[in-house]
Amino acid sequence: MKTTLAALVVTLAMFGSAFAQENLTSAQAEKLVTGKKGTLVLNQLKSLSPEVAAVLARYDGELSLDGLETLSPEAAAALARHKASARFGVADISLDGLTQIAPETAAALATHQGAIALKSLRTLDSLPLAQTLARQWGELQLNGLTTLTPEIAAVLATNEGVLVDRTRPGVEQRRADHAASVLRFDNLTTLAPATAAALAKQKGVLVLNGLTALAPDTAAALVKHEGTIVLNGLTTLPADTAKALAPCPSALVLKGLISLSAESRAALRGHPDIRLPEAFQK
Questions:
Q1: Topology given in CATH for the domain delimited by 137-282
Q2: Which of 97-101, 102-106, 152-156, 248-252 has the lowest mean pLDDT?
Q3: For residue 228, which of 162, 180, 266 has the smallest C-alpha distance?
Q4: How far is residue 37's CA from residue 175's CA, in Å, rounded to a whole number?
Q5: In angstroms, rounded to a whole number, what is the distance separating the alpha carbons of residues 270 and 260?
Q6: Residue 77: which residues within 8 A CB-CB, separation 6 or more?
Q7: Is 274 helix (H, G, I), strand (E, B) or coil?
Q8: Residue 221 DSSP class
Q9: In 10 A of CB 229, how many CB atoms?
């Protein structure tokens, strides 16, 4: 029998008092996971014991745990045993409320064989976890990151998450632009040239909307990227940066510009696929 969203909502309502207390017992978790499918939304939970995590890991569907503020290594290890989802681009385990995790928790999550969503994570310094994120399918959004090292960037750049849609046999490419990967960083406000050079090895769409300024040497490293570069956080573009970006071989998206000098506009004029605000397209 197919489980409907309404059925899930009714099931969750049965345990309203438990969620109001921001916790869940193993017995309640057992009732939630038994005979159900679809996405189980438990975003009210603020913490998760290893015992409850072990029960939830048996759930035959995606787990949304976006309310968690902390996650112990033991609970992470239990969650990591959750079965990977067969749906394209869907996170098996969504942990979008976590802003920081201990190294031991990162190591435990890295053993998961499916996709994990960590969109609010501010720091990623675990190579094993970066490798797990890089190999998952779908768009890879790390919009909480405020810093990124060249070593971690180099791992993330290997992502080919949108290259093949494994839910449709015979379909090798689902995107019209034939991008192999979509990497998104909306809160990364600074980018060192070495990190830019590492990200430039990614094949696909690189979204860096958190950048509000871009130094010429960083721009020169980025333009070696073979795919679309999105820099919609830039509101102005100095001439030396514009000249550094001009050799970019693929699409360059600068939709956030509110001012553009004549010198900068001249530097970009010969670019084959530059996307500017309408005011600068004349």
A1: 3.80.10
A2: 248-252
A3: 180
A4: 28
A5: 15
A6: 50, 108, 111
A7: strand
A8: H
A9: 22
In the block, tokens 């000249």 appear at 243
Q: Max alpha carbon distance in the chain (Å)?
A: 68
Those residues whose C-beta lies under 8 Å from the C-beta of residue 163, and which sit 6 or more positions away, are 172, 173, 180, 181
Distance separating alpha carbons of residues 108 and 21, to the nearest angstrom: 27
Residue ranges with strand state E in 134-175: 140-141
Check residue 54 and give its pLDDT: 97
What are the residue ranges spanned by the domains of the chain? Answer: 1-123, 137-282
CB 271 within 8 A of CB 252: yes
Beta strands in 126-221 (DSSP E): 140-141, 181-184, 204-207
Look at residue 15 and tell me whether its pLDDT is greater than 70: no
Strands 140-141 and 274-275, bridge-based pairing: unpaired
* Per-position DSSP letters for 33-74, written without gaps between them: HTT-BS-EE-TT-S---HHHHHHHTT-BS-EE-TT-S---HH
Q: How many residues does the structure list for the chain?
A: 282
Amino acid at position 48, single letter = L
Distance CA 33, CA 61 (A): 9
Q: Which two tokens stand for residue 2?
A: 């197919």
**What order do you get walking across the sheet with 40-41 strand by strand?**
40-41, 63-64, 93-94, 116-117
Picking from 95, 31, 87, the residue whose alpha carbon sits closest to that of residue 59 is: 31
- Tens digit of each residue's pLDDT (9 = 90 or more) over 123-173: 999 999 999 999 888 889 999 999 999 999 999 999 988 776 655 566 555
CA–CA dist 80, 84 (Å, integer): 10
